[in-house]
Every structure is written in structure tokens, then in C-alpha cells.
Queue: 3 jobs
Job 1
Amino acid sequence: MAIKLDLDDIQGLIARGYRTLPHARFTIFTTQDTADAHALLSWLLPRVTPAGRFSGDSALHVAYTAAGLRRLGLPESVIAGFQPQYRGGMTDPNRSRFLGDVGESDPHHWVWGGPQEPPLDGLILLYASSPEVLGARQAELAAHIDAAGIRQVTVLDTLEAGNNEPFGFHDGISQPIIGGLPKVSGTAPAGTPGGRVVPAGEFVLGYPNVYGQLTDRPLLPAADDPRHLLPRDPAGSGAADLGRNGCYLVMRQLEQDVGGFWRYAGEATTRPDGSEDPDARTALAAKMVGRWPSGAPLVETPDRDNPRLGGDNDFGYYHTDPLGLACPLGAHIRRVNPRDSLDPQPGTDASLAVNDGHRLLRRGRSYGPGAGALAAAGNNSHAERPAGADVAPESETGLHFICLVASLIRQFEFVQHTWLNNPTFHGLYDDTDPLVGSRDPRGATFTVPGRPVRRRYRDLPQFVRTRGGAYFFLPGISALRYLDQLPADTRSASFSSSATR
Ligand code: HEM
């Protein structure tokens, strides 16, 4: 049965990545008391962009941590209905080990969101069509925040969105196609590995997920929503559905060692006479990603880049490249979305169906020393320039990684832990993700299957480290309205401890 999504209640970030709004800034804030928190939400509420309405020159979104929801007055009995990973936070010591946030990525070294900081309340995401529009909207926001005495923990700038991430590869190509969204994007025909439609409930709470079920979310007795601000539980329990039309938002500041990455690729491919081999350097880097700098997938063009295939997403692995001779088994894109490679029946629809339960809707933006370095790289020019020449060592660059999911554990944490940072992924032995994986305590090898023999690259440095992060909840707009009026109703209504399930 076709699902109809309530686009006027869903924040627009779920429906679009705002390619037409290439300028973005993310403000992370913490408030002193409930009154400040409410003053901010009341101001933000009419400015939040729903999926069904989009003016064209800017968009604004707001998401909250569990501490932020508490500050707004949401009772503990309701908070208990959110997923434990969200409630416990990204920096819980067990979670840090699970996510690979150890060594240099340990939250104690983070520039924001670390355990030594006061808890974060929330995140405001601003997108705009030009630097001027962004500046004007940000100034308005900053003035309001200042006047309300709210602390901006950090304001994260981003690079103008283009095609390439800082290592120089075309990014933002492969995204899940969400059932029920009016404009289904994607280059691949329906029914093919790249053209699969994933149920909306994988990315928006309150709709059926891959199991045909509604993912757990906070529900409250209808009596706790006397003004009927919230939608009702679609399962028919009569409960008020605080989670519906919302989703979890994972944010991680991932610093990229661009110089180190290209230096390693260059040194590992130096010819026996000591001269550099730029083509081999680019080819090794492409093996790590699974796509060439233009975005062309290695399974389709294993030996050289072909920019005409740059946006292609219509491929599987099992039938064309089961041994990883074209795209290594441990390459970044083969780990984070193994497509049709999964047991128990690889190469079949059943395999793709298992994979559907681990998809991520990515909404990240790059950050760094300015558009200059990336513009100099162009689309395919890493082969021509000396490794690491374009980024000064002191200028940090990387990705403000953002992904949207309905289940933190089954989607983001599973991909990060069981696929990306797993040294024994797909029968490998000591390989984590060559591009972004942790090397602590294992995982510093990259295996490139080949004939007659495979090639193993050893002592891979860690090219990406975590510099900040948090789990947020991106509520539906009705839920924001409910939170906005919360203190009044919390006083008048009796929240029961059985409010959640
Ligand atoms: C600085 C860190 C990262 C860089 C530079 C990076 C880079 C890339 C590139 C170049 C692609 C291929 C283009 C595309 O399909 O969009 C890609 C795809 C992808 N990445 Fe990453 N990535 C990073 C971190 C992560 C993390 C931490 C995750 C998940 C936890 C992730 C998940 C994905 C997914 C799901 C895809 C799509 C794969 C597909 O569907 O074929 N990435 N990434």
C-alpha cells in the first residue's frame, strides 16, 4: 500500500539535501534554564522549513539532544521512550569504544560535545542560496540568541557545497530512495540495486519500516496532549505520538588529513626507481573509496576514471565483482552499503532486503580553509598535483558528517561499528575502512584483491579523526509545537509513568 507522508509536519531536511542552498552554518547551543529554552523555540518555530513548503532562498531546522528536551520540560517518563543510544549520548565510554572514538578520536580531545563540556541542548541548521542570505539569517539568529542569554557552544561553518569532499572525490552521489516522497530521485531504474525504494519508516518515525513495523518512539497518553497538538499513534492505540514525523540526527565533525592521505597513496605507489607514479597514486586512492575522483564506480570502470559514469549508482557487487577484483571488498562504499553482497543469499533480492535495514540518509557538508583548496583540486586533478600540496598543515579540513535515521543502533551504529570499523569485515583480517576507519587497536591494512596475487598495503595511518559529535532528535513540526507549550501543560496534566513503550 502506498504511504502518504505528512510533508507539512516533516522537517524539510529529510526530503532534501538542499543542493540549491549551497551555503550552510550549524549552531550548537546550550541554554541556562527552561525559560531561555522556550524563548528560543518560540522564535524558531515559525521559521522551521517543512518538507512540503520551501521558499527557495533559505531553510532552517532545529534538533534537540535528550538534555535539550529535558530543559524544555519534557518529563523523564517520556524521555524514556527515546532510543537508549540517544538518551545515553555519543560520548558514553562504552559507546566511544563501539564507535571507534578512541585514541586521537577520544571525546576528551573533542572541540565540542566532549564529556568535559556542559551538556548540549540542540542544533540549528541554516541553509541559504548565497553568502549574503546566510549572513543575514545567521545575524538574526545570533541577535536573538544573544538577547535571550543563550550560549552558542560552537558555530560550524561549511564550505560552499560542490561536488567534491576534501580528499577530492565526488561525494553525495548515492542516497536511499525514500518511499512516499513525491520526487523520487536517483539514476537507477526501479528494482535494480541502485533503484530500490526503501520504506519511509527507515528515515521518518511513525511509518512502517523494512519489517513493516513502526519503530519504537515516545508515545504519551492522549490526556497529556489535551490541545491535540500531536498526531495520534497510527497503530490505533489512541496515544499521542511525539516521535511521528521526526527522526534521529547523527552529527560528527570528522577531520580529514588530506596531506597524509595523498602522501600515503604516493609513497605506496612510488616506482622501484624512486619516481612518482601519479596514475597509480590516484588508482590506489580510488580503490580505497570504491569510486574514482569523478564518482565513476570501480565495478563499472576498474582501470581508469570515466567522468561520464560519475553519477552512476546502478550497480551491485555479487554478480559483477564477487571477489573484489574491481572494487576491493574493504573499500569505503562497499562497506557502508554492501548492496547485494550480504548473506544468506547474496546476489538476490533477499540480500538487498537485508541491506535495506542499514541505510543512512546523508546530509553532511564539508568544512575547511576555504573554497580555494578544493577549487584548485577541480574534479579530477589529484593525479596532477603533488600529494598534500593544497592544504596547509595548520588548516583543519573535513566533513561535518550528518545522517538521518529512524534507528540509531540498526542504522548508524551498525554501519560504523560492524561494517566500517570491523577488521574482519567480509572475510578480511586486519582491515578497517581504509578511508575513514579507526586503526586503534587494529585495522591498519588495506587489502586489494588481484590476480595472480592480492596486494596488501600495511601501516595505513588514520586519515580521519573525530573532533566532535552528538546525537540529536529532529522532531516533527507538531512535536515542536507541543514542546513549545510544554510547561503550561506539564503543570496541568499528569504525565503517567506508563506514558511510553
Ligand atoms: C571524512 C569522512 C568521510 C569521507 C571523506 C567520505 C567520503 C565518501 C565518498 C567519496 C563517497 C562516494 C560518493 C557517494 O556515493 O556519495 C561516500 C559514500 C558513502 N559514505 Fe562516506 N565518507 C566519510 C564518512 C562516512 C561515514 C562515517 C559513514 C557512515 C557511518 C559514511 C557512509 C557513506 C555511505 C552510506 C555512502 C554511500 C555508499 C553507497 O551507497 O554506495 N561515510 N563517502
Job 2
Amino acid sequence: MSKTAMSESSAAQSEAGRAGPADSRLACLRELEKKVLWLSSWMIHNANHLRENRDGVKVGGHQASSASLVTLMTALYFDVLEPHDRVAVKPHASPVFHAIQYLLGQQSQDNLERFRSFGGAQSYPSRTKDVDDVDFSTGSVGLGVAMTSFASLAQDYVRLKGWAPKDLPEGRMVALVGDAELDEGNIYEALFEGWKHDLRNVWWIIDYNRQSLDAVVTDRLFGRIDKMFTNFGWRVVTIKYGKRLRAAFGRPGGQALRQWIDDCPNSLYSALVFKGGAAWRRQLEADIGAVPGVAALLEAHDDEALAALMTNLGGHDLETVLEAFHAVPDEIPTCFIAYTIKGLGLPFAGHKDNHAGLMNLEQMAEFKRRNRIPDGAEWDRFAGLDLPAQTLQGFLEGVPFAARSPRRYEAARVPVPADFPAPRAETLSTQDGFGRIMTELARDGGALAERIVTASPDVTVSTNLGGWVNRRGIFDRHPRADVFKEQKVVSAQRWGMSPEGQHIELGIAENNLFILLGALGLSHALFGVRLLPVGTLYDPFILRGLDALNYACYQDARFMVVATPSGITLGPEGGAHQSISTPLIGMAQDGLASFEPAFVDELSAIMAWAFDYMQRGGVRTAGAGSETNWLRDAAGGAVYLRLSTRPVTQPERALSPALERDIITGGYWLREPAPDAELAIVYSGAVAPEAMAAYRDILDDVPGAGLLAVTSADRLNAGWHAAKQARRAGDPSARAAVERLLGPLAPDAGLVTVIDGHPAALSWLGGVRGQLVQALGVEHFGQSGDLADLYRHYRIDADALLDACAAACLARARRRG
Ligand SMILES: Cc1ncc(C[n+]2csc(CCOP(=O)(O)OP(=O)(O)O)c2C)c(N)n1
Ligand SMILES: [Mg+2]
């Protein structure tokens, strides 16, 4: 199974040292283990074979992957875990999780029967969609695993600040990891970062079934995993053999058997598991039959007993698993490599193609018979078990993990002060403005500033967070001096580290940034402490961490992403640092309200609103109602700000409350159009000066033209879709902000839109009232250059806008015939 000589579990080796669980406890756990395997298999079977299939689309579910984790999850949830522990479950073991919660009384039979159907138990555990207390959503493999590391960091952050509720002890952050998940690069990024932050209280339990989706994993992998974790300061506990196998190793011929197992290639082992007792016997007789004692050892087992012996791997042996878990004495991060068999107990155990394998009707009938489940008792919690229902129910009621319910916390909202910073200067970039706002917040203190925690993947200074960090310091579990300061080396950055620090400095891994924002952004629910996470990165590198960003949003984490610089406007730096598609990502990403302000007063209004929005937890009301309701403003969410390093002349104005509202809603007329105007220029973000220049020029020819500032294409667009839906649903009065905004224009007025990003971010505006659009933007990878050259090359300069205005007028005239 592995050519590397491996230690057994240290716990298992010192079996005598630690008293095992009482026999009666173990007996209950064994019964529940059987029930969990039954329920998880039946849930999937029911969904695939017994429910009406109206569309011919495969329902799916993973019986083999689930079976692989049954013992480990039984031990954890019914014995080892405490309510303050948090778990990321391997996505395709979702049925095991739901079955366990069902036995604990936290999941309904109805939801199990509707596994993978609308509103039923989710195919992959989901914090937001499941009702049974999922700690971390999973689905995109690797991300849930890393999430536990960053959740531990978040836990340390709030506890070291003394903010954790008194009655909430420190928990372990546990990931149940498929072995093939270890192929995902983000795991290593997280390992590295965890080491830097002196990670603790994390368990990664690897379901080492040596199978992925397509294949059996390479034999050489094992030693690598072991070494890698120890390199990063983790304890590695290998749970390889079950009790029965260990007993056999002690008998004559046993050492040869052990050696044979250790030398056996993964593929052969899997194939023999699938083929069963007779095949094991033939192979062992051929390979080691001549070794003294082996023949007798084999003879002492009939085929069934031999198959049971050879599949008695550590990860399927409750006692061994419990001993290993309970033997962990401290908070050192621990990786358990638990040997398992994919599909153990099911007819396709060990078969390399079993990932999506489902028992057919006959196989299920046989499985049901073996489990002694009477017809009609398939969902019964205790049917077919040997212990009385009352005993098992009593046991379940005493399960430590279930002692506290719900395990989700509320945290009071931190008010946003009315005098939120609004820096003023004749010329400023939005990035500079952001830095100044953060520095002012850091200086002025107050409750809001106290709960802000910033993070950046090695671009803290270059995204203008330096001022904030100088005042608020870097978070570290241990105070560490700023050596440069001590050595009196002059530097603009003062980077002292301590538990009081409020900035988490990350290495250059955007995946880590977003997973950390996800963890910090769930702190209110996980740890009962409200945090206001702000993460900065370069806009193009959103793509680098995009799945992790999506993952954080999927869990409804609350944070602010500040992405700067963006677009081709970063000028000479150019090349691979330019972002094109991010405005569309901002629009399409659920759970993320996106803004691209042009001026710093807009940015200030947006940030003040965002810090409140991030904390909202109201109910999303579907259907008719106001714009804010359509935008799900009561529910709140995360926020994305696309900023720029371009210095821009700031307007001299004081924002009225109405204008602030419009900026938040997504747009306002910087220059009002005349009634029935035939043309409007619409811009977003850093190209405001070009839009303004073109606007001034066009007034000679089109005196009534308007100039529309779009601060959030995302929210204008969302409001428009929602209003249309509301009208379709029978509310004729529903009207979106963007419809009102465009209202003063002639119905066939031309629109010229411009953004330093993909033009589709604004071109949809033509659809609102059926207007013709000339949409300018960037569609191709960029060049380096100054803005004059670049804007000319990509046709987003004032000349291009004027050309587009002319084309718009022409198109209008043509349309009128
Ligand atoms: C990011 C991502 N890529 C691909 C998949 C599809 N997928 C689901 S499970 C799986 C293989 C998992 O193997 P392993 O983690 O060893 O779990 P096992 O089924 O063996 O328990 C793959 C490729 C996914 N869920 N997420
Ligand atoms: Mg696997």
C-alpha cells in the first residue's frame, strides 16, 4: 500500500497507555456507525432510484466517498467533537454529515428524502442553504480545508483581543480532507501561510483511500505528504491498521503479512478489496504462503473473515480512530493520515471506477437485507440495530457535540460614525483617498476603527494601507519588535507586531487573502465577535483568487475588497497588471456589491455605507417593493471597490443626502440632461476626466446632453432586473433607479458609455429603454504607456468619445428615418 515504512498511529502504538472508551459507549458508536452508512447510502439511493425524475438529468451523490468517511465522522461527531469545534466536511461526504445531524435531531427526514432536490439537504454541505448547522460550506475541493486554517487565525485574533464571549471556549478547526484534495495548490499556500502565523488548533484528517475521481493515486505520494506536514511544524498521526490487523501481525507469519501490505501497490490493494476473500487468499498464498505461520494465519480465516481482516484499515476501526483523536494532547496543528477504503461495506468497495458509482436495485436490496431494515423502516433512526432504541436515543442525547444548539452566534452591529472621514484635496486618486480614509479612521479611533481588520497579500504599502498599519500595527500572536525602527533606520513604515495589531500581513497568495476574508467575515457567526475585514490587492489578481472569493461570498462572509490599481489606467506598469474583466466579475458575483467611484467624496460615502451594509442581517424579501429591497440591502453582503492610482481633479461640492443615496444606488447625473435630450455620456471610474472633456465639447452641438456618473453598474443592473421581475409579477408601479435616471432623456436618445474595463459592464444600459448605445472600453490585453497613449490606442479618450457621440447622433437620425 505504501513502499514507505510508516509508523502506525502513535496513539495506537501506546494502546495500553490510554484507557479506551467504555464498552457500552463503543457499542453505541458501532451501532451508529452502521446506521450512518445505511442512511447515507439510502439517501443517495432514494434520490436516484425512488424519486420521480422529470428531466432525465442524473441526480448523483457519492456512496463510495461517503462510506470512506463513515467511521471517522461517527467518531468525531458522536464522541470527539465539542460544540465549539468547527468542521469543514469533504464535499462529497455531505450525505454522511446530513445522516449524523438527522440522528442528532437537527435534520428532518423530509430534507433527507429530498436530498439534492429543490430545498432539500444539499449535495455539498452549505452554510447558507442547509438547515443542519454547517460550519463551513464545501464543494470546490481544497478551499474548505484551507478555510479551517484561516478560521483558526480568526479565532486567535478575536480571543487575543479579549473579545470572545466568556462562555465560548477555544475550538478546534477540523477539516475532513479527501486525499486527492491535496492536489489543489491552495492547500500548500495555506500551509505555508499557517506556518508563518504560528497556526494552532487545526486538525486536518485525510481520508486516505488512495483514490481520486478518475484513478488510484500513485504509491509514491504517501511519504511526501508525511514529510511535507512535518516540515511545516505539524504533528502527523498515521492511522494505518485496525485492531484486528494489528492482532494478526502479532501472530506467527504476521510480520510477513504486514510487510506484504506495506509493499502492496495501491492499485492491487484496491482491486483485491473489490474482488474479496478468495482473491485475497490466492494472492497472499502466492506471495507469502511459504513464510512460516502464514498458511495457518490464512486457514484461521474463512473468505469473509479474511476480507474483513484485510480491510481492517485504521480509518475504519472505531477504537483505533478514537484512540488517535483522543491522544492529541495539545494545540499543535495535527494531520491525521487515516487509511480508508473507498466504498467500504458497499459492493463496489475499492473499485477504481466507484467515484460516481451507485448501488443498483438488487445491490441495495441485498444491502438492506444485510442491515436488517424492514420495508417502510428505511428512515427509522434505529431499525436493524442490535441495541434497544432507548439506549441509543439516550446515548445521542448525551453526545457532547450536540450539547449546544444553535452553534451560530449573533454579534451586535458596530455603528458607523456620522463624521466618517471625507478627505479633501484638489487632486486625488481613489486609491490615495482610500489610504487617507483608512489613516484617518486609524487616527481617530472609535468602535468602528477598533473592529476593522485589514489584510493584504504583500501589497499593503502599494495599495496605500501603510498609514493605517503604521497606527494600528500588525497582528501577531507574539509581540515582535520592528527591528528597522530599533536600529534607527529611517522608513515610512512602522511595522511592530503584537496581538493588538489590526493588520494581517499575508504572503503573495490571493487565494489566501480571500479565504482569510471569508473566515474573518464569518467571525460574528463562528466566534460571536463582529469584525469588519478589509482586504486589498491589485485588481487583476482578483482572478488569481477568484474561486476563493466566490467561496467566501457563497458562505455569506462579510468583508470589503479594495482592488487597486485597475484597468489600463495603471499606465506604464501595464502588461499583465491590467484588468479587463473585473467590472463584469463585480456585476456577476453574487453576495458582492461592487462599486467603481471616480471621486473621493463618492468613495467616502460608499465606504461609510459599506461598513454598515457588511453588518446587516435582515431578511431578503423577494418580489415587489423598493429599490433597496430589490438590491437585498436589508440582508447585506460583501463589498468590492475597484479603485485607481490616477490623480483626478476633485469636484468642489458637498454631497447632499440625496446625492449620497444615488451614489450608493449606483449612479447620478453629474450634469443633468435637458428634458428629452438626445444624447448622454455615461462613465464609470477613472475615465471621468475624458467623459467630462468630451461632454464639454459636445455641448456646442448637443446643448441638452447629459453626463451620467455610474458609481455601481452592479447595483443599477441588479435593480433593473429586479424591477422588471416585479412588474412581471404584477406590480406595474415597480420602477428601477436606472429607469428613473434615464427617464429625462428622449426615448430614442443615444448613449455613449465608457469604462476602463470591458464595455459590456455599461452597454446593457441601452436595453433599459431600448436606446442605441456606443460602448467604449477595453477588450484586449494591454500595452504599457502613459494615459494619453493608452486611452488613444484603446479608444477611450475624449476624441474617441466625441467620435462615438457623432456615431450615436447619426444612428439616431437613421433610426428616425
Ligand atoms: C475544484 C474542484 N475540482 C474538481 C472537482 C470534482 N471532484 C469532486 S470529488 C473529486 C475527487 C476527489 O477525490 P478525493 O478528494 O480523494 O475524495 P474521495 O472521493 O476519494 O473520497 C473531484 C475531482 C471539485 N469538486 N472541485
Ligand atoms: Mg480519495
Job 3
Amino acid sequence: MVTTWDAIIIGAGLSGMYQLHRLRGLGLRGRVFEAGTGVGGTWYWNRYPGARFDSESWTYGYSFSDEILREWEWSEHFAAQPETLRYCNFVADKLDLRRDIEFSCRIREAAWDESAAEWEIASDDGRRARARFLITAIGPLSAPTMPTIPGVETFRGEAYHTGRWPHSPVSFAGKRVAVIGTGATAVQAITEIAKTVGHLTVFQRTPNWCAPLHNRPIDAETQARLKASYEETFARCRQSFGCFIHDADPRKALEVSAEEREALFEKLYGEPGFGIWMGNFRDILVDAGANATITEFMRRKIRARVKDPAVAEKLIPTNHGFGTRRVPLESGYYEVYNQPNVRLVDLRATPIERITPAGVKTSDTEYAVDMLIYATGFDAITGAFDRIDIRGAGGRRLRDKWAAGPRTLLGLQTVGFPNMFTLVGPHNAATFCNIPRCIEQNVDWVTALLAWMRERGHGRVEPTPEAERQWTEHVHETGRRMLFTQVDSWMMGINSNVAGKDKRTFIVYAGGAPRYREACEEAAAAGYAGFAFA
Ligand SMILES: Cc1cc2nc3c(=O)[nH]c(=O)nc-3n(C[C@H](O)[C@H](O)[C@H](O)COP(=O)(O)OP(=O)(O)OC[C@H]3O[C@@H](n4cnc5c(N)ncnc54)[C@H](O)[C@@H]3O)c2cc1C
């Protein structure tokens, strides 16, 4: 039997959980389908050692419920994964969400049935369901990728991907461990693993510019102050480009003296969180000359922290400036390479040829290890969409429509896929955001649209081709200003481990959250201009 719901939500991370809650508020029957065995999404899957926030904890949680804000206490400024997963479960309990979530249910297909004006979904294990609305809450970083190195399946030791970390403890004591990758996840994992490992080998292809996290516990006095000022905190987040508490310094890097510049860089390097990325001179991410000043500062920091000059040089990025790829935040990462039991292998000099039963074979050596950790990240933003066979009107595949890059209206809908909403989808401000702040905006907007349609008796919505063209063009235009669009990274849709993801495409929205919110609000105020209803 196929049950019909008012709305199907795929994914029970922060997006899916909040969307379910809001649908209930409208009196709609929503059903969530989730691949994992529990809620939390990112925080359910990413249990690798060292996994924690880069967002300040107290800016990350949901803001919509005073009760949740009052009752929940973050123990650290940047909470670790187990605490965030507890938070997700706390919210699920509080809102009694689980009764409408089907766990261990990976959706494989979703097809629009024009005659019934409904979506039908099917899971890997043959479950089916139908609904008028399909809301994807499948996550921007939820489709893990393995490297395309031959021999992966031949390795005889323990092997893990950081994004699919086991639920039982993993010990590194006395073991020879290899980590492949040096992105944000790897930087966290390497720092933690190095504390107990027998011997660690890090295989690095592209070094990243990492900045100190400066995490610390939240004491009672600070807790009281943070809780009393939630309203101001969220208001401040709303005003900033990426919904962080950090907002750009109004000055340009080259309009101040070298001493003033150095003083700001030094101050930001000594402060917690993304300030050095988001709260820096306003032109460091758009002007190459300005960017060169912070890049040089960061280069000096690496040289000062890593004792062996040859190792320091390997850790210094040469193909991109600071902030033009996702900045990993670290807590002693560079000092790991001062440990005698840690070795850095530069894959640009000696590429990996294959994984062998004993370990990793590069062009010059075979490294024998007991454990291999793939910190090779995700097929970002569009990856989770590509892994579902989504077919819209006339059987057209979303994968085909987006093959040369996504086309969307507000990163929330796409022509030919009526009644489908893509929370935290490509071209959405949430892709460049302290994400829950944007999740709440996305969900609130979609919920208001559903209420509006119901009041008017509309059963179908999709963007007009012209509105989609205009938004997509706007996404490209705002992107082109940014230095990051001149660099290969997942933020530009590049993933060398995924076939076809070798050309830069605009997948994130770089116009800033305030501008995005304004566009959403303007469309709504004009009777959802750009959308066609039936
Ligand atoms: C290690 C790590 C650290 C991060 N740190 C931060 C941070 O500090 N600040 C920040 O703002 N963001 C951070 N992020 C981004 C993070 O993904 C978002 O903050 C947020 O959790 C996204 O929530 P979501 O519900 O949209 O997606 P997710 O949390 O990814 O949830 C998506 C859910 O959909 C499910 N799903 C996907 N496809 C299917 C399918 N076909 N069938 C069924 N279920 C499916 C997945 O199993 C998953 O549970 C981090 C991401 C990672 C990986």
C-alpha cells in the first residue's frame, strides 16, 4: 500500500526536523524519510575524532523556540559532535518529531505524476509514498566521496571514511594510521588522532589555509549572558553576510598602514572562530591585492609554528589565496607536524599510485599502515541530489537538467519540477552561511508559501523560466566578483573523485544572506512573483 501525505520531506537533519515541525503547525500531514537510524544529519554521520563546530555553538542552534533556547545549554563555544547530536535529539524529543520520521530509509527515486499532481518516492528497500509536495532536506555535505584510487578494496587493515564513522569507539593507540586528505574534516581529525596515535602519516594533495579556533568552555557567568542576549545575537547574525556574528571590517586592506593591517590580522588570529575570514577587511575576498596581504600574514604564521622549514613549505598553499577555499579552523594542527611520530607526504611530488593490501603506494614508496582514514569529503551541494533519481514533468531528470550547473529560482525551486522545494539547495544563501540561520529562513519561507497556496486553492507551483533565468544569472554575477570563483574547490562544484565534476560551476550563492532574504521577501510580498500557480 502506498500512503499519501500532504508533504514528503527527505532528510532528518536540522532542515528536515524544522520543516516537519512547521508543517504540523499548518495542520499538514508531513512525513520524513531518513537514511540514518537517528536524527541530526551531519551530526549523526560525522562522528570522527575531533568533529566540532566552526560556528559559535550559541549562534548555531535553532532560534525559533524560546523554550529550546532556555532549556538547552552549550558547554563550549564550539561544541563537539557528540554534544550537537545530543542537541538534535533533545529537539526531536521536545517537538515529538520521531513519530513522523521513517528511519533507515534511503530514497532512491522521486517522480512527479502530472495526472495526479503528486510526487511518488521509492526507497532502496522498496518503501513507497506519495504527496503533493516534495521537500528535499538532504544536506549540502551529506554525500561522502571516496578517492578514485585503484586498490581501495584490497586493503587488509581497518578503513574508515570520516563522514561514515562507526558508532563504536576506534582506538589509534600503538597503531600506524594514515589519513588521506587535508580539508576541514581532516584538519580536525588529524589533530585529535595525533594525541594518541602510534605513528601517523598524512597524505596531502592540496594544503589549506587553516586558522586557530580558540575554543573554550562556557562558564556559568558567560552562559547566563549568552542566554540573556539571544535576541541580539540572532539579530546581529541576520545583518551579516554569512549570518555569523562576524561581519566584515568596513575598511579596505590597502587603505590603512601596514602597521594597522598587521594589528587587525594579529587581533583576528588571536580571536575565536571565523572572524579572520568573515570579519576581516571588506575586500580581502574580492580584491587580489588585498587578499595577498592576509595570505602573506598566514604564510608567516605557518612558518613560525612548524619547526622544520621543509615541512612548513609543504603546508603552505601555493595555488590559492587565504579564504578562497573553505577555511579549516584548527586547535594545534600545525604543531602536529612537530611531533616525531607524524610524517607529511606531499602528493604533488609523489602521487598515490594505489592502495595495497598493506597500505599506500606512492610513486616512490609503499607506506605500510594498520588503519586508513579517508578524509576525502563530500560531493558538495548537488551530490545528494545526484544520488536520487529525481524525475520531474515529462520524466525529465534533475541530474540532466543540472548537468552543466544548477538553474534555480532562489535556490528553492527549479523549472520542470513542480511542487519540489530544495532546502539548502544550490544557489541558496544557505550554502554560504552559518547554516541553521539560513535553514530557518528557507523553511519559514516555504511554509508561508504553502499556507498562501492553500488559502487560494492552488495545488501546483513552479518558477517561470524567465524568473529562473534571472536568478541564475544573478547567482553567476554575484559569484564572479569573488576570488573563490577563480579557484578549484567544492564551492565551485569541483570534485576530482566524481565523474563529470571537473568544470567550475556556480553552486553557492555569494550575494550574502541579507540580499538573499530580501529577494525572498520581495517575491513573497509581490504575490510570489516569478512563480506560476495552478
Ligand atoms: C563535519 C562538518 C562540520 C560542519 N560544521 C558546520 C558549522 O560549524 N557551521 C555550519 O553552519 N555548518 C556546518 N556544517 C554544515 C552542516 O551540514 C549544516 O550546518 C547542517 O547540519 C545542514 O543541515 P541539513 O539538515 O540541511 O543537512 P544534513 O545535516 O546533511 O542532513 C541531511 C540528511 O538527509 C539525509 N539524506 C540525504 N539523502 C537522502 C536520501 N536519498 N534518502 C534519505 N535520506 C537522505 C542524510 O542522511 C542526512 O541525515 C558542517 C558540516 C560537516 C560535514
